[in-house]
Amino acid sequence: MNPPIELPLGNDSVRFTYDGRVFIEDAIKALTGEKKQEPARVWNKIKKDHPTVLTYCSSYLTSEGDKIQTIDVEGMDMIFQLLLEYM
Hints:
Blueprint: E1 5-9, E2 12-16, E3 22-23, H1 24-32, H2 38-49, E4 57-61, E5 67-71, H3 73-82
Antiparallel strand pairs: 1-2, 3-5, 4-5
């Protein structure tokens, strides 16, 4: 398995898979400036309020064995638009 690609974005970094999927909570944190635990809260709220976003998601298995949710470009566009509701 290839390690994720990590790109700096402001004071944060966002991880991507080699096929272009975005680590969801990284992106939410970088785009909103939320504190460490808040991206998970925002993501859980988005999933609850807009479950169709899950059709764009898949899990990425880290080298440590953790499963992290990723999303494709179309799904990230949806999240980007929805974030305004949660800020």
